[in-house]
Specification:
The complex is a heterotetramer of chains A (664), B (188), C (148) and D (287). Chain A contains 18 helices and 34 strands. By secondary structure, chain A is α/β, with parallel strands linked by helices. Chain A has five domains: 124 residues, 3-Layer(aba) Sandwich (Rossmann fold), CATH 3.40.50; 188 residues, FAD/NAD(P)-binding domain (3-Layer(bba) Sandwich); 90 residues, no CATH class; 162 residues, 3-Layer(bba) Sandwich (FAD/NAD(P)-binding domain); 63 residues, Alpha-Beta Plaits (2-Layer Sandwich), CATH 3.30.70. A five-stranded parallel beta sheet of chain A has the order 10-7-6-18-29. In chain A, strands 20-27-21-22-23 form a five-stranded parallel beta sheet. Classes of the chains: A alpha/beta (664), B mainly alpha (188), C alpha/beta (148), D alpha/beta (287).
Chain lengths: 664, 188, 148, 287
């Protein structure tokens, strides 16, 4: 005969506002096996938890039901509370009276009735609870960081500096990410490369960091503490052990292609490092464009017609003989205990905006393109010129929210950084050429950040940028000028400006492949393909999957300081995990009752985690669950024909007890 | 007491609800970016830009909205709707406002435009088809702009661009019935 | 039908997407009819076909099973198994004398609070339209049950 | 393969101010073996006046023509952009069963809303590969002007890109002429305001003509009688008001096709325009 204690939380007025607590308590008293009922203003508060603790002891309760917020919010909190009263923490059941009841239904009888039913449901389930005991498993104190942008770099360095080994995977030939492409950073106007490069070098030289560039994560198996990761290393065709990065090859390579790093406004060679400060400072051969690899493909495919030249200049000139045509793509496997995902963002492609020319007008550029035009190491060595005719623009117009706050483009969110980088551009353009006049069309100036507002003011008061409140409707070419049509919504009058250069402040979108990677890792992502944190406020760098952490703009629009902070935060979380020598496993796993198992091993087929082993007893072979691998999905339970498998915490008996509690 | 020109917003106005009902658009979705007004070919001639008109509806300023030149100078060119980042069919909203203004018998700020529509529609049940000459003549008489476009007449006539006699089609009688039925339905 | 008829709905929600989606509906205060009772399961694949039948036997008018969108399962493939399992069951329901319209399988992600509240409202309307179910054994008194 | 027989709805203006559009369209289609069967005693689509004053009327009037086409069982070819727009809108609204019921009741007789409405521009554009050209329009720079009613809203009209449509340009290029890339293809000319607010029509038409002139166009090609009359008949006033020599012939695309196919200016009624295109065409040795 169980002795269940029922505790109803008012959550201030969040629950008590629409649910009649007194009625719920009355009803609870009548429920089978309920030995004690009580309510708290805030059960999760210290006094709240204390009163629950005391009640358990005083009334010798052996099961606890708490009617409060969602179990996804406070299940762990209350398990600790229960444990502190000397009761097994898994003898707790939570009735979700807030998210599933008081917050979504009006003030009225039916809301209270539902609350009562949810409590009865919980009581019935709890009646069938049994004490559960976690097991301990070992963990590999080695981390994987995916993405070598500023967030990933920061995470890798912090983890490495706290004494753990890190494998840093970057799909480009160099780390550095978007930040490396920026000229200056707001609001301090630091040179982006100057503050980033030292960190990149540290990564390259850190004894605890294994840097895998030109590589992508392909497959992830295992679980917290014991992940196994398959990484595809694309063939560099250059042996980085012997290569000294002298640069002869990329200076002499005759094949020129548009440079991704320069947003295709400059060129690179087929054997290349993406930019001067690249880490590693050693080249890769882009096999799609290299003349010799083209030749090899040509021969291999036995095509007709004129053969491409067998260039091989790089090979001939390389002083250390580092060129290695034999090198192939290869897949390597790494064992790690935890993973930080920092795959960042890319900028929105504005070609969908027909009214802005849809890419037809060369002198309509994106913010990132302007960064490269302004950068001393950029394609124009920092000389800001019009792509069309190389003239120096005097009138520059900015269009805000391109690919942001625009449902038409399926992008309803604010990209957060554009307001500030437009201000930065206005200030920088004035520094480059005092004759430049900037006009910035904005909807709202979003300058919430340390020194941001001051910076935005500076763009107007010192750089003399004219801010016009309104979204640009159309841009068209008129001779050498671009006519920009907007409204000054403060005057309520249409505005037309004849511009030399128009800059589209394109927003942030998740990197290509973000969703695919999320699936590989079994973490969730939202409708925009941004990754979802475990709790948007309280667990901002964790995911719902233990041992996998997030950092930077892959979660949503972020600026540099936020990305750095999150990189460090993720590292700290990971270090906390690694500070333990063993991990406590969740006991809510499947368990096979050997007596009932017929040994059909259907469970083994369906288990997504290979968590079913076979056990040979003296008489026969039966299935047995590896509790380290089992994640408790219950797939095998529902598929087991003999009903021999039970899922702890979600057994048939317990779930059906919930059903039978309804509408009594 | 409040001063006349001071706005007293009425967030839940009968104006907004009826416009939303007629147009099927959610007026509160407008975040006032002004892209509509920036692209509107006649915004320069309006007393309220389309954006201000949307604002007027949000605040429930019935007289300002129904009394604006905006609703009559709208050319239904659809640019506003095509480019609206909130995907509001603004042209549809203005259409609803015109119809509402007529229903409310509120004094049109551009009375000639309404007159033109009235004459145009007046002729169709008679002839079944539009007839420019009758349209022009009637308009000039009723609007008292006796000389509007008269300068063009001789050339139009010599070029044979204007048919003197109105068209005669059997369909006319059917169209007359059609008009009557529509009016009847709309009465209910 | 009787104005006060309130369909009884059991919802099996996977912990990672749909239950979280329901929580999201809560945190964003999106109201929906109070007819649903949510039972939390780790994965839609945990839901045994037997449970559905039991629910109807217990007097439920409708059952909703919801999990992560296909491809997004927290356990990578659970919802595929669920989908297959319940497609089959749906066909069997008619045979058991239960209109298959009373059994919905829908995908709701952790960020789709709006979708969840819409879903519950739609299901509740549908069931109200269909009216009470003739439960086995004790036939529902049809006098309080006019035409939908 | 698109059908070569169409029901044909000229629209009011094509029997008066835009006669040359009607005539050239029939001429061209006939010689291409495209049959246009004119709807029997068709009536007005309601133009901009109907939808400005009554939702229902703006659906019922076009519905009458749709019904007529349904009886013929043929896709409906339309020349006037305004009619095209109104018919397409009607079809869209009639997708709602309640509306369909109400409207069929008003126009009397059954309406199934199954008719496909196509604009002549599309019909001819599909022929562009195999046009029998007798007199390619080499050296002629044409600014294709689509106006509003053909392209917006795209999801209802389903015609071409809203900001930078190409259909007419492709057709014109196929005639050997050069179509210019410009930003005013779908800007508004002033629509139905010429009687009531001439000043606006002058302002808007001036911007369009000025831009085309500046880019060195020899003429504008249009597919809408309303655009045509706004751009053609106003040029004297514009030049006087803005002291800007914008004189540019405004031709219907059908006339340009006809010209390239070797029909005479007389057959194509090129003499009907207020801004006489003949001098320009003679100079280019195209007439």
């Amino acid at each position: 005969m169980a002795r269940i204690g029922v505790f109803i939380c008012h959550c201030g007025t969040n629950i008590a506002g629409t649910v009649n607590i007194a009625e719920v308590l009355e009803a609870a008293k009548q429920m089978p096996n309920v030995a004690f009922v009580d309510d708290n203003k805030y059960s999760c508060s210290e006094p709240g938890q204390a009163s629950i603790r005391d009640a358990i002891v005083a009334n010798r309760l052996d099961r606890v039901v708490i009617g409060s917020c969602s179990p996804r919010m406070h299940e762990n909190t209350f398990r600790r509370t229960v444990a502190s009263a000397g009761l097994n923490p898994y003898l707790l059941e939570i009735a979700n009276l807030r998210e599933h009841c008081s917050w979504v239904h009006g003030d009225g009888k039916e809301t209270t009735d539902k609350a009562i039913e949810l409590v009865r449901k919980a009581v019935n389930k709890a009646t069938h609870y049994e004490a559960l005991f976690p097991k301990q498993i070992g963990l590999t104190k080695r981390a994987l960081v995916i993405g070598g942008g500023i967030a990933g770099i920061q995470a890798a360095l912090d983890i490495a500096n706290s004494g753990y080994e890190v494998v840093l995977v970057e799909r480009e030939p160099s780390i550095g990410g978007r930040m490396a492409q920026l000229d200056k950073t707001f609001p301090t106007l630091d040179c982006s490369a100057c503050i980033l490069a030292p960190k990149m070098v540290d990564v390259g030289q850190h004894p605890n960091i294994t840097l895998l560039t030109y590589s992508e994560v392909q497959k992830v198996t295992g679980y917290v503490g014991n992940f196994e990761v398959e990484i595809l290393q694309k063939a560099k065709k250059v042996d980085h052990k012997t290569c000294t990065g002298c640069g002869t090859c990329w200076q002499k390579c005759p094949e020129k292609v548009p440079s991704e790093f320069e947003v295709e406004m400059g060129e690179r060679t087929a054997i290349y490092i993406p930019f001067a400060q690249a880490v590693p400072p050693k080249p890769v051969i882009d096999v799609d464009n290299c003349r010799y690899t083209k030749y090899l493909r040509f021969v291999e495919e036995g095509k007709e017609g004129k053969k491409p030249p067998q260039c091989r200049i790089c090979e001939r000139l390389c002083p250390t003989g580092a060129i290695d045509w034999e090198q192939q793509d290869q897949v390597i496997t790494e064992r790690v205990g935890a993973i930080v995902v920092a795959i960042g963002y890319q900028t929105f492609d504005p070609s969908a905006y027909g009214e802005y020319g849809g890419g037809r007008y060369p002198d309509v550029v994106t913010g990132l393109e302007l960064e490269r035009l302004m950068c001393a190491s950029g394609p124009t060595e920092g000389e800001v010129v019009r792509p069309s005719d190389g003239a120096h623009p005097k009138t520059v117009v900015f269009a805000s929210c391109v690919g942001s706050r625009d449902d038409r483009m399926g992008r309803s969110y604010c990209s957060k950084v554009c307001c500030m980088y437009m201000a930065k551009h206005a200030i920088m353009l004035k520094e480059h050429d005092p004759e430049v006049q900037c006009y910035i069309f904005y909807i709202d100036i979003r300058a919430g950040g340390k020194d941001f507002e001051e910076f935005a003011r500076r763009a107007q008061e010192e750089a003399g940028a004219i801010y016009l409140r309104g979204r640009i409707s159309k841009i068209y070419e008129d001779g050498k000028k671009l006519i920009v049509c907007g409204e000054d919504s403060l005057m309520g009058r249409p505005v037309e400006i004849a511009a030399d250069l128009v800059v589209l402040a394109t927003g942030m979108v998740p990197s290509d492949g973000a969703a695919e990677l999320a699936r590989t890792l079994n973490i969730s992502y939202d409708s925009n393909n941004f990754l979802i944190e475990a709790h948007v406020k309280l667990r901002p760098v964790e995911t719902q999957t233990d041992g996998i952490f997030l950092a930077g703009a892959c979660i949503g629009p972020r600026d540099i300081p936020e990305s750095v902070a999150q990189g460090s935060a993720a590292a700290a979380k990971l270090a906390t995990l690694f500070s333990q020598d063993t991990l406590i496993t969740d006991p809510l796993t499947a368990v096979v009752d050997a007596a009932w198992c017929v040994g059909c091993f259907l469970c083994q087929e369906v288990c997504p985690f290979n968590a079913i082993d076979s056990l040979v007893t003296d008489t026969r072979t039966v299935a047995v669950v590896n509790e380290g691998l089992c994640k408790g999905c219950g797939l095998c339970v529902a598929d087991c024909r003999g009903g021999a498998i039970k899922l702890r915490g979600f057994s048939d008996q317990q779930l059906l007890a919930e059903v039978s509690a309804l509408w009594r | 007491m409040t001063i006349a020109s001071v706005i007293t917003p009425s967030p839940i106005s009968e104006l907004r609800t009826s416009v939303e009902k007629r147009s099927g658009q959610n007026i509160l979705e407008c975040y006032q970016c002004g892209k509509c007004s920036a692209g509107c070919p006649t915004a320069y001639a309006m007393d309220l830009t389309p954006r201000q008109l949307m604002r007027g509806i949000q605040l429930g300023l019935k007289d300002e909205v129904l009394g604006s030149t905006t609703i009559w100078l709208c050319l239904s060119c659809q640019i506003c709707s095509a480019r609206c980042p909130r995907q509001i069919d603004i042209a549809r909203v203005l259409e609803s406002l015109r119809i509402l203004a007529i229903a409310e018998k509120s004094k049109p700020a551009e009375k000639d435009v309404l007159l033109f529509h009235r004459i145009f529609l007046g002729l169709i049940p008679r002839y079944g088809r539009a007839h420019e000459l009758s349209l022009g003549v009637l308009y000039n008489l009723l609007s008292k702009h006796f000389l509007a476009n008269v300068a063009l007449l001789p050339k139009m006539l010599t070029k044979g661009k204007l048919t003197i006699l109105p068209p005669r089609v059997k369909g006319a009688s059917e169209v007359k019935k059609l008009f009557a039925k529509v009016r009847a339905v709309e009465k209910q | 039908m009787a104005i006060d008829y309130q369909p009884k709905i059991v919802g099996f929600m996977c912990n990672w997407c749909s239950y979280a989606g329901a929580d999201m509906a809560g945190t964003s205060r999106m109201t929906y009819p109070p007819n649903i009772r949510v039972i939390r399961v780790p994965c839609s694949a945990r839901v045994d076909a037997l449970f559905i039948v039991k629910c109807f036997q217990q007097g439920a008018d409708g059952v909703l099973v919801s999990g992560c969108h296909p491809g997004d399962c927290h356990y990578s493939e659970g919802n595929y198994h669920a989908r297959r399992r319940f497609a089959l069951l749906r066909e069997l329901l008619d045979f058991l004398g239960i209109e298959k319209e009373r059994f919905w399988v829908e995908w709701v992600s952790a960020s789709e609070g709006k979708r969840f509240s819409r879903l519950v409202s739609a299901f509740t309307d549908e069931l109200s339209r269909m009216g009470p179910r003739n439960t086995w054994g004790n036939q529902v008194d049809t006098t309080d049950q006019g035409q939908g | 393969m698109t059908p070569r027989v169409y029901a044909y709805y000229p629209g009011c203006t094509l029997h008066s101010t835009a006669k040359e559009y009607d005539v050239s369209a029939r001429l061209v289609c006939q010689s291409l073996g495209i049959e246009l069967r004119e709807l029997k005693d068709w009536t007005c689509c309601g133009a901009s006046s109907a939808h400005s004053t009554s939702d229902l009327l703006s659906i019922a009037l076009p519905a009458r023509e749709l019904q007529a086409a349904e009886e013929m069982g043929l896709p409906l070819a339309v020349a006037c952009a305004m009619c095209f727009s109104r018919l397409k809108f009607a079809i869209h609204e009639l997708n709602d069963q309640a509306t369909l019921g109400l409207v069929s009741d008003i126009i009397g007789g059954e309406l199934r809303n199954t008719i496909e409405v196509v604009h002549l521009l599309k019909v001819l554009e599909e022929e562009k590969e195999d046009l029998p050209l007798k007199r390619p329009l080499t050296g002629l720079k044409v600014a294709c002007y689509y106006g509003c009613l053909l392209v917006r809203p795209r999801d209802i009209l389903d015609f071409d890109d809203e900001e930078n449509p190409q259909i007419m340009d492709h057709l014109i290029e196929a005639l050997g002429a050069q179509s210019i890339d410009w930003g005013f293809k779908t800007e508004c000319c002033g629509a139905s305001l010429p009687l009531t607010r001439k000043d606006i029509v002058l302002t808007l038409s001036h911007r369009i003509l000025h831009q085309a002139k500046q880019l060195g166009a020899d003429c504008l090609a249009v597919a809408c009688p309303m655009c045509h009359s706004n751009l053609d008949t106003t040029q004297r006033e514009i030049e006087a008001k803005y002291k800007d020599g914008v004189g540019l012939p405004i031709l219907y695309f059908t006339q340009l096709v006809g010209l390239a196919m070797g029909f005479s200016p007389k057959q194509l009624l090129l003499n009907k325009h207020l801004t006489d295109p003949l001098p320009m065409l003679k100079e280019k040795e195209l007439a």
